[in-house]
Amino acid sequence: MSPTTTPRTLLSTALGIALLAFMLFPVYWMVNVSLQGGSTAASSTFFPTDITLDGYRTAIQDQTGNLLTSIVVALGAVVVSLAVATPAAYALSRFRLRGMGIFLFALLLAQMIPGIVIANSLYTLFNDLGLLNSYPGLILANATHGIPFAILIMSAFMRSIPPALTEAARVDGASHFRAFWSIIVPVSKNSLITAGLFCFLFAWSDFMFGLTLTTGADIKPVTLGIYDYLQGNVQSWGPVMATAVLSSVPAIVLLVLAQRYIAAGALGGAVK
Amino acid sequence: MTTTLAAGPRGAAAPPSSPPPTRRRARRRELTAQWLFLVPAIAYVLIFFGYPIVKNLVMGFQDYSVRTFVTGEAPWVGLANYAEVVSSGIFRTTVVNTALFTLGSIAGQFVIGLLFALFFKRRFPLNNVLRSLLLLPWLLPMIAGSAVWRWILDQDGGILNETLQGIGLIDDPIRWLTSPDIALVAVILVNVWVGIPFNMTLLYSGLQNIPDELYEAGALDGATGWKAFCYITWPNLRSVVNVVLVLGVIYTLKVLDIILGLTGGGPANATQTLATDSYRRSFQEFSFGTGAAVSNVLIVVSLVFAVVYLRANRRAEEE
Amino acid sequence: MRRTPTAVGAATAAGVALSLSACSGQTGADDGTLVVTDTMSATSAPVYEEIYDACAADLGLDVRANHVAGSGLIATVLQQASSQTLPDVLMLDNPDVQQIASSGALSPLGDYGITGAGLPQGVLDAGTYDGALYGITPVVNSIGLFYDARALAEAGVEPPTTWDELRTAAAELTTEDRYGIAFSATNSFEGTWQFLPFLWSNGAEEDDLASPEAVEALELVDALVEDGSASASVVNWSQNDVNDQFIAGNTAMMVNGPWNMPSLEAAEGLEYASVPLPVPAAGDTLEAPLGGEAFTVPDTGNPEKMAAAGAFVDCVTAGENQLTMATGRGAVPADSAVAAEAARQNPTIATFVDTVQTARARTALLGPDWPQAATQIYTAEQLALTDTESPAEALERVAAQD
Lengths: 272, 319, 402
Hints:
The structure holds three protein chains of three kinds.
Chain A: H1 7-23, H2 25-34, H3 54-94, H4 100-110, H5 115-129, H6 135-158, H7 164-171, H8 176-187, H9 189-204, H10 208-213, H11 222-231, H12 237-263
Helix pairs in contact in A: 2-12, 3-6, 3-9, 3-11, 3-12, 4-6, 6-9, 7-8, 9-12, 11-12
Chain B: H1 20-59, H2 66-71, H3 80-87, H4 91-121, H5 127-133, H6 136-139, H7 142-152, H8 159-166, H9 183-208, H10 212-220, H11 225-254, H12 257-262, H13 274-283, H14 288-318
Chain C: H1 3-21, E1 33-38, H2 45-59, E2 62-67, H3 73-82, E3 89-93, H4 94-102, E4 106-107, H5 121-127, E5 128-129, E6 132-133, E7 135-136, E8 139-140, E9 144-148, H6 149-155, H7 163-173, E10 179-182, H8 189-201, H9 212-226, H10 239-247, E11 251-256, H11 261-266, E12 272-275, E13 293-298, H12 303-316, H13 319-329, E14 332-333, H14 336-345, H15 350-357, H16 370-385, H17 391-400
Parallel strand pairs in C: 1-2, 1-3, 10-11
Antiparallel strand pairs in C: 3-13, 4-13, 5-6, 7-13, 8-14, 9-11, 9-12
Helix pairs in contact in C: 2-12, 8-9, 8-16, 16-17
């Protein structure tokens, strides 16, 4: 059903744009400052009068590597998170095993732990395992953001899948894994994509693990790149904001691509 | 002791009764298969969450300082850290601030997120694009985000005060981040701004799950607008609402970077919460034992809330 | 029937225990490469790296430099200390040297023949713990009073030298769209840092914060805000923000340090100058806090490596290199003679060269207990400047919290 363009709906669109403008004003300001050459934020004008791309030039020069790092780490975290969380979500929604209630509770408890506590403990662990300053290390660490959350929302979704779907396959002799892989996963596509998206976004904006689990310039997520700018007594806010804007781009692209799936209901039902 | 081994009700291919050992072996294999689904997650949780939480718990009972990092010695001090934390001048302040910050943030994020979700349920051009773009506040690195908010909220040159004065709403500039009375409100506002996308997305998802037929049937009975919301939308949204609220509280209790970026816990501890206090104790005063104690208190608060809320909810559902 | 899950559980637990106890002892290469960790930003790093390379070449070694963001450094140091992976040469902010030295992680520089001769007392105090020198700071800085020369000339105001003059000048320079003065009074060690010159120059000490001298100092700073000469936003402005405000023309004077000079130079149309911070009364000595990063040699348990690191540090902190670092970063060479030379070459830095000679280390009095006092100081300042309490009450409150 495509939206019909009536005066009524256009009014909604206008309202929507107004809401967006209001909510996104700080983002506008970020873009505004990134396009201005003035060194200080205090001297930025409302509209960029003297548009300059110097900020972006510097940002691209300095931060492209960091952007790539962030992308690799975030995507890796998505893969790991989904690989671990999806089977667990299925088990939680379908099987009745002893101790699952405890596990669910543990998941909730896991999310209560302040990030800095996790980061500190992981340092010693990673150091012993040689995972510091490594992509696998960052990926595994960033999965902490997403796995509990992914399990919770995916299991909520899977609970609404009628058992009949898998029982038919099981009757025919399919293993649990086969039923899971061939039936549950495709049916849960929306939920998986939503969970994956959240995992990506959590990992993308991570700062804590980047700060504590890397020690050099080799691997640095873009959030740390911005932090470095801010450390050095910012002489020009242009590059800082330009980096922030650039770092939003991959996430925006993903969002626009994936919003179709989120829209279709990630938390349950919709098994048509 | 139940498994999903059984076939459907008709049991078309039910195995003939087998001798006990084979059945036991089959059941064991069945259980193993099922547990294998959970093993990666359990292992991950044990290592990446279990270890930190145990370590933090133990650290709360130790005198853990810079020296400990070098020599490995962390004398056991029992409850001394907790005693010091509870009796310190700012304990009450941090607890109150944490409570206010959490309540304010959740109320704001949830209500506005719900309103947005309801709004976007309508069909109009650009709906999808706008809804995706609204996720932007969530995407921005908070370090850059808090820098921008500090400019916006600046008392003298910030755009918010200039606008409010320009349209005549206020006479004197509001001391958003520099007045102990208002700073917490300002920080809550920014946190609400950051949290709306998350709430909106999940609630929107939940709304999408409510079949249109329910609304159509309800409309036939005269339930539209507010009534439709009360009798159709809200009850069907309950499970999503629970997830959103519980997770919302848990995440908000942990919030650190927004507050540090905006006010650093000031002015005069007006925005110091349990989370920021724990950070300050550990990484500014190098008193990791008390820092761990504070973060343990935080985790307990989180836990109590989750348990109480979920239990109350289950009771409500049973009624 | 529980055997399977238990077996799985046991295997997992064993795996975890095994991985936790696994030793690997990698990091710092065992092949004559010195690992140096410093806190230089992207702009300053090249200057330092050139010096590192030159000194390493002289000693026949390789060097690898890690640049870590300043405020993340301590966390990194602690973690490295606990896993025995400290670098061969470690840069620390000078107030942290005594803390880290007291934990046993550093080796005395005297072992490598470094004595700190020619350095001002403040510099030596910062790096000394328990009578031994652990850290040496090649370039230092402090804070002074920057002012907009044109603004002062227009208003017919002379740069202030005493507290009374400061208050009057700030008031006279305040106009409709400009404050007279700006400084940083945040809820952090930066706020403390900026308040110290007022505290110390008036004779107050950080271990007796409720003294009348301390109250007077806080009353002065509070008065600047009360008079309207300084924005109430100072409680939220970092030194970076203060610099932004000054460059944007929102304030006629600012309390800040020489590291801002590159950006001040780059600002178009700004005619700035600097004088030492005003003292309570004419003839008093200015006691400003000493800033700067110290090079230390952690105790890595490898005497050969440590000796090499010691020689490296000795080379890196030599007079010539001090001059290079100072020029590149807007700082002052630590060695008094070299500093005088720097002032000759670059007169704009003369203010800070003078200030540094009588500057005082933050950890000189309290050593590893400095962080608590620093917290008390900024808390009191915040309480006073936000009108939550009067300066006297604020200082009494924090002093009582000991």
